[in-house]
Automatic annotation (TrEMBL), chain A:
Name of the featured protein: Branched-chain amino acid ABC transporter permease
Keywords of this entry: Cell membrane, Membrane, Transmembrane, Transmembrane helix
Signal peptide boundaries: none
One Pfam assignment: BPD_transp_2
Record's subcellular location: Cell membrane
Membrane topology qualifier: Multi-pass membrane protein
Organism the protein comes from: Agromyces agglutinans
Bilayer-crossing regions: 27-45, 51-69, 104-125, 132-150, 179-199, 231-251, 257-274, 281-300, 306-330
Domain of life, per lineage: Bacteria
Automatic annotation (TrEMBL), chain B:
Ranges of residues in domain Leucine-binding protein: 44-383
Keywords (A to Z) from UniProt: Signal
Family: Belongs to the leucine-binding protein family.
Protein name: ABC transporter substrate-binding protein
Pfam families: Peripla_BP_6
Signal peptide: 1-25
InterPro entries documented for this protein: Leu-bd, Peripla_BP_I
From TrEMBL, chain C:
Gene3D superfamilies according to UniProt: P-loop containing nucleotide triphosphate hydrolases
Alphabetical keyword list: ATP-binding, Nucleotide-binding, Transport
Superkingdom, taxonomy of origin: Bacteria
The species this protein was found in: Agromyces agglutinans
Keyword Endoplasmic reticulum attributed: no
A GO molecular-function annotation: ATP binding
Pfam families: ABC_tran (PF00005), BCA_ABC_TP_C (PF12399)
Name of this protein: ATP-binding cassette domain-containing protein
Biological classification of the source: Bacteria, Bacillati, Actinomycetota, Actinomycetes, Micrococcales
Amino acid sequence: MSAPVVHTEPTGRATAPDIRPRYRTPGFWTAVVAVAIAVAVPFLVSDYDLFNLSRVAAVAIGVASLNLLTGFSGQVSLGQGATFGIGGYAAMMAIRYLEWPVWVALLAAIAVGALVGFVIGLPAVRMGGFNLGLLTIVIAALFPVLLYRFSDFTGGQAGVTLAAPAFPSPTDSLTDAQWSYLVVLTLLVLTIAFLDQLVARRTGRALSLIRAGRILAVSNGVDVERLKLQFFVISSVLAALGGAIFAFVLGLVVPESYPLVFSITLLVASVVGGSRSWIGAILGAAMVVYLPSLASSVIPGEASAYLAQLVFAVVLGLCVIVASSGIAGAGRRLASSIERVLRERRATAPPTPPSTTREEIR
Amino acid sequence: MNHQTRSRGTVATFAVATAAVLVLAGCTPRAATGSDAQSADDSPIVIGASWPQSGPLGSVAPGLAGLEAAIAAANEDGGVDGREIELVTADDAYDPARLVENERKFVEQDGAIAVVNFGGISIAGREYLGQKQVMGVSMAGNSPLSDIEAFPMQRAFWPDVSWEAQLQGKWLTEHAPDAVVGYIGFNNDLTESHLAGLAAQGVTPAQVAAVPPGTADLSAQVSQFQAAGVDTVIINIGAPTGGATLAYMDQIGWKPTVFLSSTVSDFHTVINISGPGPVEGAYSFEFFKDPSDPRYADDDVIAQYLDDMEASGHEKDATNALALEGYGLGAALVDALSRTDSFDSEGLLAAWDSFDGTENPMLRDGITLEESSHGRVIFQYQLSRFDGASWVDEGEIEDVRELGIVE
Amino acid sequence: MSAASSGSPAAPILSLRGVGISFRGVRALDDVTFDVPRGGVTAVIGPNGAGKTTLFNCISGIYRHEGDIALAGADIQHLRAHRRAAAGIARTFQTPTLLDAESVFENVLVGTHAWTRTGPAGVLLGTRSARREEREAREVAWERLTAVGLAPVAHVPAGALPHADRRRAEVARALASRPRILMLDEPAAGLSAAESDELLELVAEQGRATGMTSVLVEHDVALVMRTAGWIAVLDAGRLLATGAPDAIRQDPAVVAAYLGTDAEVAA
Ligand SMILES: Nc1ncnc2c1ncn2[C@@H]1O[C@H](COP(=O)(O)OP(=O)(O)OP(=O)(O)O)[C@@H](O)[C@H]1O
Ligand SMILES: [Mg+2]
């Protein structure tokens, strides 16, 4: 391979690899199976489990928004939890004080998320790296303080609650919890489909270049600042959307839900799940939702909070050391090695050049 | 599609399916939940308790231990009407979101007819309990919990903090009309309620220090108080702040009149931290007993409480007044259950609202649980003064209903 | 300026006027003024640290610099780097820089960013024009990939390529941007003589086919003399001479500063 013959016709094919239709990618079918199972779930498990699964789905939108930022556009935010909370407050206050319908309130959260993303994103994109981390950490730390400071407006410690379920079931054959879960699941699937499509093709290539380095990106004609700002805004919009859905599921927003630690937890969930993987975002979100109560059922009392943190830290450490692409990445690698073993066993003909669409669902 | 990607897809699909099976295995099947399990006559009566066991208010965990001891003792005695009381508990780390999550689990999964919790964050769950028509009882004295018009399913156990504040204000206007008052409390609605109570009696503190839980050093605020000529200090803040502040005031030789709010006047919260000396001479309007106070060393009710704590494996928390208060809350619930017509939320709520001179192990002698008003059941206080070893009664028991503080 | 600066074509593709830059007081380029003739291969030579790579970075807009640069007569010094790439300035790097985790094909495909126009919204909606453009980009990339002989390894992650193939992949990526000017920073480094000849012949052919101009930074003087039609010599940030290879070879200042009196040069 060190000296390929330059001007001969290559073996393999003579034309560009096709753009493979999505339904022919294995990731697509994995996603179809996952969605099919997820749709069956509300008919199998209790309403309380559905409530928790709905929370997982809402947090997953938040983690996915962070994946978009860190895993794809190569930026970091330690303030995503605050944006998540801002979305929650925007939606809840729109319903409670302005009496807007739920779907309009969701749009309000999206608009506020875009605004916040733009305002933070403008300086943030210029800063990058460490300074961006600092800026976002300050925002995350300030957010709950401001909620208390303007308690006439935000309800202070008591927060804002919903008088009725946000997604009431329209039919007697489904409980509110079942319906609400299905709505949230739909929103999650739409979000992931949106994200998966967003980071494809030309945009995806520009993002790869940005992650590889600014000079490489601009030399190939990528407007790095513009794209980063666009993605910062999109990421904030999705974080706000996730936060609004989370608030609806819980029927409540309170400052205590959005401390700085929550922002950091989201970031850890993104890294642990796999910041380039959409399924990873769901896995990370499941950790955020289930770990605290799991930990307190293993060892009750003061130690449980530390156990949850310990598990988080250990998993994060493992990810940094052995599985830098998170749980999803480790799973993908496991799949590849199983596949290699299978292939060796079959000892079939050498592989043909691949189609070059992204092969995994992320 | 070539077999390379196909097998990877198969593996991925298989992995997703496995993960799904694992998740489902951790869930409760639909059929087995909540109300269905309730119907049988000998099935246990389920009560859920979401309590801070970790986090910023992890120090109140003994309250849950007391609650458990009371329920265990009741079950030991044959339960209520032959039914066992099942207390399901969960940690909320004083996080309102986790509180609501826990309440959902109690109601939807465990089929609880009532949900008990500690403090101010229970406001977050009122709306949900209202929707589900499940009774909620909070230990806390926060005034917003008195709003039973808007939240008819929510009750509170301790009296409204503003009532005690009114008693303090009333005492001050009668005994020290020229007092210059300084107030130390949490930076939350508890302080607002307290100040509102004082204001209702015409007392406006010259100085207010509202600080977050866990603050230990108030030396700056204390010197500000001194500079402003404060001669009366009202303290309504938990460990370690109250004790540390009293110790500091003693250290610098400042001796104003001190009022401790009842719920933060016990040995664990204050006296063990500051030492008895600095608390000597302090006043408090008390309604519950403190198992650490030597005056109850021979008290029969406290002895029974200590036995029950030991029997349920909670002896290490037994000297904590919060444990006795949790025990009292448990006893009140058991009493209400023993009087209810139906073992559901409605029945329990009706019974809870109709205490009538009911004795309770945590209450001072002569104080009883009364018919509910403003969602509260305790209305009587005994002014007490710390003599350096023990809280000693001063005068008669006062009833806020008779004083016109509560109509 | 040296006597060798005659015979420059009338309409240069690139003209540099007083280009200069300092790094913390170090004058890396100073008043560099010359024209790159349209078409063919122009070489920029000079000793280590002369400022050759810095000049590329100025032209491609990576550095803010003094002076004026015009591309085909239009001023570009106010354009930011990505706009210059879109205007048709492509380059390779002294150390080949690839997306190591991506396939070789993907690495070439990213070069098409310079002339494709589909924005995030177009990608998201998969509009007809977006799909058409994507297809075209893939065809161009495949064609350039095939031209540099990397088609057999199209699916291999770029990180697994040997050095020579990394250079080829970079050249293919730059070519995929349909450049008007291709700047090659030491493309022969690490390649055998036969390999570098092949690569440069490929570039020259591309130039003949599309009118693209190549600018070559290279230390291999024999290769430069064989390949370039026009040469600019830099030394310590200053332009020493420009001219045709024969004139440069004999320029006493250039000989003194850089070429020496090698038998190879004479040959
Ligand atoms: N980013 C930078 N910061 C500081 N100094 C720089 C920078 N880039 C280049 N220089 C300096 O500018 C001068 C020219 O460097 P440049 O890399 O352009 O030389 P070159 O001609 O490409 O050399 P070589 O043949 O070794 O690649 C050197 O002294 C170098 O140290
Ligand atoms: Mg160089």
